Amino acid sequence: MALRLRFLRPAVWRGAALVLALPVSTLAAPPALAADAQLDPASKVRVAASPSQPKVSRTTPFGTASRATILGQGTQLWIEGTGGRVTLERKSGARWVTAASLGVTLQNGRRYATVRVPAAVADSLAGRTVEFRIKAAATPTTSAWTSGAQRLTLPKRTTKVVSSTLANLSGSIVSAVKTKRVSASFMNAEGRTAALQRKVNGSWRTVASAKVRGAIATVKMPVPASARAVSSYRWAVSATAAASAANSGTAKIVTENPRKYTGYKGVLHRQIKAYCPNTVIQIHSRTGGYAGLAYIGTDQIAIVSGLSGNFRKLAALHECAHLRQYAVATKRGASWEQLKARLNKIYGTSGNLGMEMNATCTAKAMGASLIKGAGYTTNCSGARGRAGAAIKAGRTP
């Protein structure tokens, strides 16, 4: 039986493999058609049917599909007859090397072979133009055959910015006098340079850069030193011959310089600067019964407007103490929960009350006077006071 190939409808992508179709040319002159030669109505290719002579495969020429079709869908071939081992070869220098062994499956009595560029091959040759061909081994009833070469430019690897700590800063207020370390994780960017960019007068300018190591890049983010600025930031990776470019989403970040605070903010800054010199202060209206708030994990506190005298100082230093608690809690791999449990034991309480009482005792150690009915406690003697002094000094109680 003769070996015949014909083209079916385009096959879809399967897994990570790239499906493509290759032109197949006749390498040997076909034998003269025997009297019982027949015309395959689907492929329009005449094949010799005489069992007495060697069979030579002849296939429909292809070369009409666009590169997008070849890369996106490709063409599936069906093989009639037993057929030999079918392989996909690529040209490497002057030699042809095997890229993949093509599986031949039996479906409804027909044998199908789908030409695929393996994902590993496509990745190793990303962005390069490579010649491919199909080769089939001879069998007792069919001759060996080799297709014509198909030149194909393989797609570049897709680079992505997977995540970024810029997102954690977006919408918050960042201190303009404290260096912020920001990082991002990337896909297909190992060893390349990742740039942190700020938008200036409508154009993106690189303000810091670092090599991607272990899929991560980390930089120190410089920010404007002005009293207040609103800036847009993003991560960017340039394209290479084998990989695409990538940009992260934009993060809009507000920066303030505490050293340039005036008025009410200036008074608060002077009261806490010995212990929280780079802390951003927000002013809130009096709501919810709280005189102040601390944003744990940031350099921000909020104080309600209109406070005066020692109550204002106690509120400001109490929130500053919470920021110092976080710094102590996260030192050397410890956690906020561990410090909370420790302080609850010292102050004989539960929940967050140990943290709150300690913040008041820390404020007292920083120079505030205790006020009855404010600050959670007026008892900062003994171990309670020593725990406050420890947080003031940056030590675990």
SSE inventory with pairings:
Blueprint: E1 4-7, E2 18-19, E3 38-39, E4 46-47, E5 58-59, H1 67-72, E6 76-80, E7 86-92, E8 95-102, E9 104-107, E10 110-114, E11 116-117, H2 119-124, E12 129-136, E13 145-146, E14 150-153, E15 160-164, H3 166-169, E16 173-175, E17 180-187, E18 193-200, E19 203-211, E20 216-221, E21 228-237, E22 246-247, E23 251-256, H4 263-272, E24 280-284, E25 292-295, E26 300-304, H5 309-329, H6 336-347, H7 353-366, H8 382-393
Parallel strand pairs: 1-5, 16-23, 24-26
Antiparallel strand pairs: 1-6, 2-11, 3-4, 6-10, 7-8, 7-12, 9-10, 12-13, 12-14, 15-17, 17-20, 18-19, 18-21, 21-22, 21-23, 25-26
Helix pairs in contact: 5-6, 5-7, 6-7, 7-8
Q: What distinguishing features does this structure have?
A:
397 residues, alpha+beta, Zincin-like, 3 domains, 8 helices, elongated
Rg over CA atoms, rounded to whole Å, is: 36 Å
- The average pLDDT is 78
Number of domains: 3
Uncertain parts = 1-75
Q: Could you say which overall geometry the principal axes of the C-alpha atoms support?
A: elongated
Largest sheet: 6 strands, mixed
Structural class assignment: alpha+beta
Distance between termini?
89 Å
Topology, number of strands: 26
Can you give a write-up of this model?
The chain has 397 residues and is of the alpha+beta class. Helix content is 21%, strand content 32%. It has helices at 67-72, 119-124, 166-169, 263-272, 309-329, 336-347, 353-366, 382-393, and strands at 4-7, 18-19, 38-39, 46-47, 58-59, 76-80, 86-92, 95-102, 104-107, 110-114, 116-117, 129-136, 145-146, 150-153, 160-164, 173-175, 180-187, 193-200, 203-211, 216-221, 228-237, 246-247, 251-256, 280-284, 292-295, 300-304. Strands 16, 18, 19, 21, 22 and 23 form a 6-stranded mixed sheet that branches. A hairpin with a 2-residue loop joins strand 18 and strand 19.
